[in-house]
Specification:
The protein is 68% helix and 0% strand. The protein is mainly α and 104 residues long. The chain has one domain. It is globular, with a radius of gyration of 13 Å. The protein starts with 7 loop residues before the first helix and ends with a helix.
């Protein structure tokens, strides 16, 4: 199934697209915030490894920067993430259309 399913590569693609859509950085704190956002926006669908990684990162974030990570979780609850979507489809969509679909 092209572009669908799980796997670390597909999870990383979706995760990287989330960085672009949400504006959370790729530095340490940005990764913790994005972990909170990804969990708040529906979790990691088919990827057990990403569920575990995002949960640990969000917990670390709640210790390191609780206000920012709680804010990211709350923001995520108003959004829909891309885990579980066909990655080929996601990569083929117009950025602004994709952003409106995820962030509302």
């Amino acid at each position: 199934m092209p572009g669908g399913g799980g796997g670390p590569r597909r999870s990383l693609i979706v995760h990287d697209v989330h960085h672009l859509l949400t504006g959370y950085g790729t530095d340490f704190l940005g990764e913790l915030e994005l972990a909170g956002w990804e969990l708040g926006s529906g979790g990691c669908s088919w990827s057990f490894v990403f569920w575990a990684d995002r949960t640990v990162a969000a917990l670390i974030g709640l210790v390191v920067s609780p206000k920012r990570v709680f804010a990211a979780i709350r923001r995520g609850r108003t959004c829909r993430n891309l885990f579980g979507r066909d990655t080929d489809e996601v990569l083929g969509l117009d950025f602004e259309v994709l952003k409106r679909g995820v962030l509302g």
